[in-house]
Amino acid sequence: MAAALSINSIDLHYGAAQALKGISLTCQPGKITAVLGRNGVGKSSTLRAITGINHLSAGDITFGEEVLKRTPPYKRARMGIGYVPQGREIFPLLTVKENLETGYAGLARSERNVPEYIFELFPVLKSMLGRRGGDLSGGQQQQLAIGRALVTRPKVLVLDEPTEGIQPSIIKDIGRALQFLRDEKGMTILLVEQFLDFCREIADDIYVMDRGEIMHTGPASDLDLPDVRKHLMV
């Protein structure tokens, strides 16, 4: 089976500064892949390259049978790449319902609805549909950001540090949701994380980054290896 998402020897620069150096990784269909590393090693830059926010200096990204050269972000979203950015970036003055409906933009008119399973995963969203996004707690906003991405009917869900600043009970809810999306919906999931226990519990495969390069690739159980941990220590 072809990989749902494949990154092939990509470089990325911000001006004269090189953020990514020959990054290659593969997200297998129906699996959770985690990218780990300290702050500033290029994890978020990798996701911004995948979603088309930043242009590559070299290499390419393939999604299904398509090579994503300079495909703009909105077209990648329509192709099935759902993005949950770091910091959530919900619309604070829009209601929960309106935030979810922003996911309709790339959908056919017949698909413009919120799938019921989103409310089953995150019941708090259904009970707060009329509340403004900015009035939600950080954990509730994270659930809203994931729900909004799921409204777009993604084939691949890309998440940037979904556990950052979130209370433990909601981290567990998010973990269960991602496992459900993998196991029951067959969704391919790529997440950037620093929370090792979370990744060990839910991820299938891990990539460890340091200074803009991939230093280790393997199963999630490799997080217990000293050679892997040395790249994750502050």
The CATH homologous superfamily is termed P-loop containing nucleotide triphosphate hydrolases
Query: Class in CATH?
Result: Alpha Beta
Order of helices and strands: EEEHEEHEHHHHEHEHEEH
Put simply, the count of helices is 9
Helix residue percentage: 25-40%
- The third-level CATH topology is Rossmann fold
Separation of termini? 38 Å
Widest sheet: strand ordering: 6-7-8-3-9-10
Number of strands: 10
Secondary-structure topology with pairs:
Elements: E1 5-14, E2 17-27, E3 32-36, H1 43-51, E4 58-63, E5 66-68, H2 73-79, E6 81-84, H3 96-101, H4 116-121, H5 123-127, H6 138-151, E7 156-160, H7 168-183, E8 188-193, H8 196-202, E9 205-210, E10 213-219, H9 226-229
Parallel strand pairs: 3-8, 3-9, 6-7, 7-8
Antiparallel strand pairs: 1-2, 1-4, 4-5, 9-10
Task: Walk me through the structure.
This protein has helices spanning 43-51, 73-79, 96-101, 116-121, 123-127, 138-151, 168-183, 196-202, 226-229, and strands at 5-14, 17-27, 32-36, 58-63, 66-68, 81-84, 156-160, 188-193, 205-210, 213-219. It is α/β, with parallel strands linked by helices. The chain has one domain: 3-Layer(aba) Sandwich (Rossmann fold), CATH 3.40.50.300. The chain has a six-stranded mixed sheet, sandwiched between helices. The protein has a four-stranded antiparallel sheet with strand order 2-1-4-5, covered by helices on one side. The longest helix has 16 residues, at 168-183. The model has no long low-confidence stretch (mean pLDDT 94).
